[in-house]
Amino acid sequence: MMRAMVTRAGKLVVGEIPKPMPLPATVLIRVHGAAVNRADLLQKRGLYPPPPGASEILGLECSGTVEATFGNSSRFRVGDRVMALLRGGGYAEYALAEEGCVMPVPTTISLSEAAVIPEVWLTAYQLIVRVAKLQHGENIMIHAGASGVGLAASQIAKDLLGAHHIVTSCGSDSKCDASVRVGRASASVNYRSLKGSLSDAVIGAMKGERPNVLLDCIGGSVWVENLKMLDMDGRWILFGTMGGTKPPEGINLGHLLSKRVAVITSTLRNRSAEYQADLVRSFSNEVLPKLAAGKLHITIDSIYDLRDAEEAHRHVEQNENIGKVLLAGFESLEPNRQSDETLQRL
C-alpha cells in the first residue's frame, strides 16, 4: 500500500491505495515532488477524465528516485534521480511511468526543479517545434506569458529557434515583468490595463509587424483579437480554453479564410506512448542540456506540502502564480480518519 491524495466529492484527502507494481517498459518512481497543472483542477471537478488505463490519481509530472523496474532490461537503475511525464498518478508516494517518458535529472538540477519540467516544458516544446513549426526570424504571440508553459515557450522560441518578436499577454505588471525578465519575451502586454485593443497593443509591441504564430490557452474570449492580430498564413495554436469554449456569436469565418489562418488544436496527455517517448527523446537532446547548463530558466512560484494541495489548487485557479506550483512532503503523508472513511467507500 502507499499514501496518495484521493479525490472525493471534488476535494483531495490523504488516503491509502495499492502501490503500483512495475510492468514491462515501465519505471516505478518514489516521488519527491509533483507539479500542479490546470488539468489537475479540471480532473478533480470531473471535467477532464484520464485516458483509458491511466491512474485516476491526479498528477501529470513528477520527480524522484527509481524504486524498481521490470526485469533487467531497463536503462534505469534503482536509486537513479529521474523526472517523468505521467498520464496520471503523480500525487502519491509512488508513481508508475512509461520508461520512454522518464528522463535522468542532470546533476545541476535539483529534484524540486525537475518536478516542474516534464509537462510544461514538453508541452511548450511540442507546440512551438512540432505543431506550429516556428521558423527562425518569425514573430510569435503567447497568451498567459507568465504561466509555466508561457515562460518555457518564450525561452524556447528565442534561444532554440531564434524568433524575432516575442510578445506575450499577462494579467498584471508583475507578470509582464517576469515574462520579459525570465521568459525573455521582447515585450509583454497587461491586458487588464489596456486603453485600446489587445491586437493593437501586440502589433505596436512588434513595431507594426504581426504574429506568424499565436499560442492560445484562452480560447473563446480572445477569438476576435487573435484573428485581428495574426498575419497572413498565420498559425493559431489552441491548447486550452481558460476563457471559454465558445467564440462570440456572429463570428464570420470569412475572416479566417481571407487571412488563410490555420487554426490547429493540440493536447499532450492523450497522445500515444510512442509519440510521447519520441517527444521526450527530442526534448532531451535539444532542450534539456540548455536547462542543465542554466541557459534556460526553471521558475517555481511556490511550494506547498502535499497535504495543502487544495490550497495550491486555489492559488493556481485564482491565477496568482508566476511559473509553476510544486507539491512536496510526500514522505510525511499520514492517512487521517477522513481518508480512512473515504477509502471504505472507494
UniProtKB/TrEMBL annotation:
Oxidoreductase is among the record's keywords: yes
Record keywords: NADP, Oxidoreductase
Keyword NADP set for record: yes
Alphabetized Gene3D superfamilies for the sequence: Medium-chain alcohol dehydrogenases, catalytic domain, NAD(P)-binding Rossmann-like Domain
Pfam family, one: ADH_N
All copies of domain Enoyl reductase (ER), residue ranges: 7-327
GO function terms (MF aspect): NADPH binding; quinone binding; quinone reductase (NADPH) activity
InterPro entries xref list: ADH-like_C, ADH-like_N, ER, GroES-like_sf, NAD(P)-bd_dom_sf, Quinone_OxRdtase_PIG3
NCBIfam families, sorted: quinone_pig3
Protein known as: Enoyl reductase (ER) domain-containing protein
Organism: Compsopogon caeruleus
